[in-house]
Design a protein that fits this description.
It is a single chain. It is elongated, with a radius of gyration of 25 Å. The chain contains two helices and ten strands. It is α+β, with helices and mostly antiparallel strands. Bound molecules: copper (II) ion.
């Protein structure tokens, strides 16, 4: 059989295409598996069974705290079926670190109209940094199904002006807008 130069070229190109596809699949698989098996750079753990008794998430530490550098740290807990504090008070135009965890099962913490979206996993601390440009109210739904009362699990974030917040922060160690 005489060699058909066109058929040879077809086969070569097919082999190259298949080679490229195999390489891309291998790269995607390596990337995904590699990332999945590597530990996260920062994992903070906490004993979910003693959250309320002592440590960072004891009741007196929940809410919003003004840090010496002028930034703000919010500590919150998710539990079936509410967030504590139920209403989080934060200043606008301020770097905010939100630290939260779960006291029981998996919950979600999403702040509407922002890109803040975290999972609250019992035993782990979720830490998110954000900043609000303007005062206003944001709903905070739990968006991980956590049980029969899940759809009623909503918190709130109230953003006030920085001046107003600093005034409130002078005489209170932890702030929230619960019952306001
Ligand atoms: Cu929930």
């Amino acid at each position: 059989m005489s060699a058909d130069p066109a058929a040879g070229a077809e086969r070569r190109w097919a082999a190259i295409s298949i080679g490229i596809i195999v390489l891309l699949i291998a790269l995607a698989a390596f990337g995904g598996i590699h990332q999945a098996v590597m530990p996260q750079a920062v994992v903070e753990t906490i004993d979910a069974t003693t959250l309320h008794i002592a440590g960072e998430f004891a009741e007196g530490n929940l809410g919003t705290a003004l840090e010496p550098d002028g930034s703000v740290t919010v500590r919150a807990i998710g539990q079936q079926y509410s967030f504590t504090p139920q209403c989080i008070l934060v200043p606008a135009d301020t770097p905010i670190t939100l630290r939260a965890t779960s006291a029981d099962v998996l919950h979600g913490l999403m702040i509407e109209r922002t890109n803040v979206n975290a999972m609250l996993v019992p035993g782990y601390i979720s830490s998110v940094t954000t900043r609000f440009s303007a005062p206003g109210d944001h709903a905070v739904p739990c968006h991980e199904f956590c049980g029969i009362g899940h759809e009623g699990m909503w918190g709130r974030i109230k953003v006030i002006s920085r001046e107003e917040f600093l005034k409130l922060a002078t005489d209170r160690r932890r702030l929230s807008c619960v019952a306001q």
